[in-house]
Write a sequence for this structure.
């Protein structure tokens, strides 16, 4: 069963909204072709269907985009500030923060390489930070700090407050995990 009910619901909701049958959605650095009539999402970089959990994200995003994306607020919120985020934070820490720390904890400046690879820009926060537009109108801020004698290195992932009006908290976890594993 897996993702089948969520996918069916997302396709049905999208069909009710869409005037067109095909859309293109950029997720991080990949373009996806969304074919509503055939209920198929194809990654154009590898010419293969996307995984179901990514497909659900793309369909939820596209549904909201057709309704109208919220304006980017410029206010950053932590995962704990999202509905249910406090209770789910240990899993978020394990699935999102830990992979970022494994890759960049000893060399935070290395994250600045993502500016060239992705739709990103350097931010002037922490010891090293970037804002990555993972989807059009969906920025995510990653901050990293060097460790010292007293404290170890740290990382954080923040979201524009408008993300609450695009995705549910569960979708935010999957989106952030996708980003953490891709950068």
């Amino acid at each position: 069963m897996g993702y089948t009910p969520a996918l069916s619901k997302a396709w049905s909701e999208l069909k009710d909204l869409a005037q067109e049958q095909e859309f293109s959605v950029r997720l991080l650095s990949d373009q996806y072709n969304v074919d509503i009539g055939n209920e198929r999402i194809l990654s154009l970089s590898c010419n293969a269907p996307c995984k179901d959990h990514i497909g659900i994200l793309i369909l939820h995003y596209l549904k909201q985009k057709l309704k109208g994306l919220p304006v980017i607020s410029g206010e950053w919120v932590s995962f704990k500030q999202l509905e249910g985020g406090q209770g789910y934070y240990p899993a978020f820490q394990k699935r999102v923060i830990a992979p970022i720390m494994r890759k960049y904890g000893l060399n935070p400046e290395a994250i600045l390489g993502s500016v060239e690879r992705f739709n990103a820009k350097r931010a002037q926060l922490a010891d090293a930070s970037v804002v990555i537009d993972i989807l059009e109108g969906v920025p995510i801020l990653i901050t990293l700090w060097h460790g010292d004698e007293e404290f170890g290195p740290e990382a954080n992932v923040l979201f524009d407050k408008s993300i609450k009006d695009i995705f549910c908290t569960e979708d935010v976890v999957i989106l952030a995990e996708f980003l953490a594993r891709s950068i």
